[in-house]
Amino acid sequence: MKKIFSKWGERVKAKLVGETKDRGFQVGVRRTFPISQEEAWRLVASREGLAFWLGEGGIDLKPGQGYETTLGNGEIRIVKPNAQLRLTWKKLGWQRPSTVQVRFLSVDTNKTTISFHQELLPDQKERELMKSYWENVLLGIKEKIHSSFIENPAGKNVTITQQY
Question: InterPro entries annotated for this entry (predicted)?
Fold first, then answer.
């Protein structure tokens, strides 16, 4: 292990990837999709979308509202439609809840980045597990989007409108 020293010559503990100064571990993943912010919001924040990444169960997206699903429980903290969702999530088997933030970033009408950021993870192992989990969620969203496109005879992608 590489030794790290402060500018005063004191030995400093090297941080692991994703380790924060005082809030455990964090992880963030993002992917850009060829959809509007509104479509991205529907894919993630609709009942079907929430069930996909938070588990089956009734979730009412109102700040202060608690929820319980097949994968855990928590509390909704911030809801800004088409822009941001922030909540606590205590996954089954965890000792403490984490904080999850989902952002929907768009600079173009049909190009939106969906970003999942999670903090307060207990250790590096859980960070790696959740990194894989969020990457799989984004892959599932990509597949959902891809299945809603068809190729028309002119060779252009055509969106099939669906309610999520």
Answer: ASHA1/2-like_C, START-like_dom_sf
